[in-house]
Amino acid sequence: MAASSSLLFTLLLVLLTFSDSSVQTLGLEVGINYGQIANNLPSPARVSYLLRSLNISRVKLYDADPNVLLAFANTNVEFIIGLGNEYLQNMTDPIKAQNWIQQRVQPYLTRTKITCITVGNEVYKTYDHQLWSNLLPAMQTVYNTLVNLGLDKQVTVTTSPFLINAYPYFAYKDKPNEVPLNYVLFQPNQGTMDPSTNLKYDNMLFAQIDAVYSAIKAMGHTDIEVRISETGWPSRGDENEVGATPENAGLYNGNLLRRIEEKQGTPAKPNVPIDIYVFALFNENQKPGPTSERNYGLFYPDGTPVYNIGVQGYLPELIYSSATTNNGFSICSLLVLAIAYLISS
């Protein structure tokens, strides 16, 4: 029964893949963070179709989930995969690092585009000094292992570019009476002038990016590209989480996507379009912390948008029903409503 369902789903995904012209969407020139701390998310195979219907070709994971990597095989979607903090100590050991890469990365490279490995996640927020001390050695060991295995031309470790998480939302939430809402939402505003550079900023995100460039330059580096591995805005929050509304989230992400579409650079790097991974694809109902942590998604788990930002994707809906053959065997028939959608298009 499971084999029959798998075959039917595969055939239907092929049908849907070759019928992309029937789905009207606006392509997104942006990456997306695909978190999975939830118990109600659609299968990776269905997510694969949703992202392709949105023309999203770059995905960032927080692990190296084989189910996701297999679901996106032969799709030309590029993946950043993650080594969680729990692996950092092991990754300082060359043998353990090689075992991880050979088991979790190498088998998928022939079919799935893994272009980057992040080592650790928000390590400095943990205040765990052991994690801090393991971070750089782990990055070096993973990189050396990729070189030794001849994989360094396919996969990079985040020594370059420099990835940052930038959230203007937090600045506004903490000081809503001091930080203008229009300034953080990319709405028309008076802007602010940097007294050191005389550059004018009309939004906080670009100011945050250039602040990182300035810090890197102060350390003697001028050839490191800054990319935003996370940015977003929650659509819901606790009483003290000022500004966490669907309206503000829609304005932030919608205006950000327009800036990306226009290939805008920051005032300090006007000719370098910003490179961003939006956080996040889905609301994740099992994330710990305040309410906002569970409400950063662009989509609900059923594939409907949390708010309107001018894009429309399609998540195939699966309905299972059982039937019995004349021989008495129970079979599973799979109905994909996407077929009706395609026929009606």
UniProtKB/TrEMBL annotation:
Residues 1-21 form the signal peptide. It comes from the Eukaryota. Coiled coil: none annotated. Keywords: Glycosidase, Hydrolase, Signal. One of its GO terms (molecular function) is glucan endo-1,3-beta-D-glucosidase activity. Belongs to the glycosyl hydrolase 17 family. It catalyses: Hydrolysis of (1->3)-beta-D-glucosidic linkages in (1->3)-beta-D-glucans. InterPro entries: GH, Glyco_hydro_17, Glyco_hydro_17_plant. Its EC number is 3.2.1.39. GO terms for biological process: carbohydrate metabolic process. Pfam families: Glyco_hydro_17. This is glucan endo-1,3-beta-D-glucosidase. Transmembrane segments: none annotated. It is an enzyme of class 3 (hydrolase).
